[in-house]
Design brief:
By secondary structure, this protein is an alpha/beta fold. The chain has five helices and seven strands; from the N terminus they run H-H-E-H-E-H-E-E-H-E-E-E. It binds S-adenosylmethionine (SAM). The site of S-adenosylmethionine has 23 residues, from helix 3.
Length: 165
């Protein structure tokens, strides 16, 4: 097997093993990334948490607006790419190579996710369990079952925790 095939196999494995734990890599498009930030309406100094931060584009855009960010991402290549891409904003944004189901979520002001339908009930429970302060969640494409979004914009939904606030 030559080196190119080995490298291709490595890439396929790194990008596909994540489907055991969450959504595969599919980046949010630029207009939707901005719509997500508009819905979250965070101010400079507030913290945005992204669960499955992909190539870091959403947190980078947020950092340009002075918003701090924490990204959890399972794919080490994407973590590495994000760190390089956001080097200029390294004091604001941190990327961690972690499975977000296995961490206690840190207190934050907003959360952004682009998951899959089947993970939304688990996410709802996790936010409720881990976070005690009010937090806004924006989800791209997938709804939290049984919950009415506080707002919607271009395929994105805003939810406010705790429930009813
Ligand atoms: C649909 S992509 C969204 C990427 C990014 N949030 C965006 O919108 O551009 C989902 C990302 O979550 C990552 N991921 C999936 N399950 C994960 C888990 N359990 N912990 C951390 N990252 C995960 C994948 O590697 C992938 O990069």
């Amino acid at each position: 097997m030559n080196i190119a095939i080995l490298f291709a196999v490595f890439l396929i494995l790194v990008f596909s093993f994540v489907i055991l734990f969450g959504a595969p890599y599919l980046p949010t498009l630029k207009p939707q990334a901005q719509n997500a930030l508009d819905l979250l309406d965070l101010k400079p100094g507030q913290i945005l948490l992204e669960l499955g931060s992909g190539d870091g584009r959403v947190l980078k855009r947020a950092a340009k607006q002075g918003i701090s960010g924490i990204g959890y991402e399972l794919n080490p290549l994407l973590v590495w790419y994000s760190q390089i891409s956001c080097w200029r904003y390294r004091k604001l944004v941190t990327f961690k190579c972690r499975n977000y189901w296995q961490v206690t979520l840190p207190e934050c002001d907003g959360i952004y996710v682009f998951l899959l339908d089947k993970f939304m009930p688990r996410l709802d429970k996790k936010i409720t369990k881990d976070l005690s302060n009010p937090v806004k969640l924006v989800s791209y494409a997938f709804k939290i079952p049984g919950r009415k979004p506080a707002a919607k914009k271009g395929g994105l939904m805003l939810y406010k925790y705790p429930l009813g606030k």
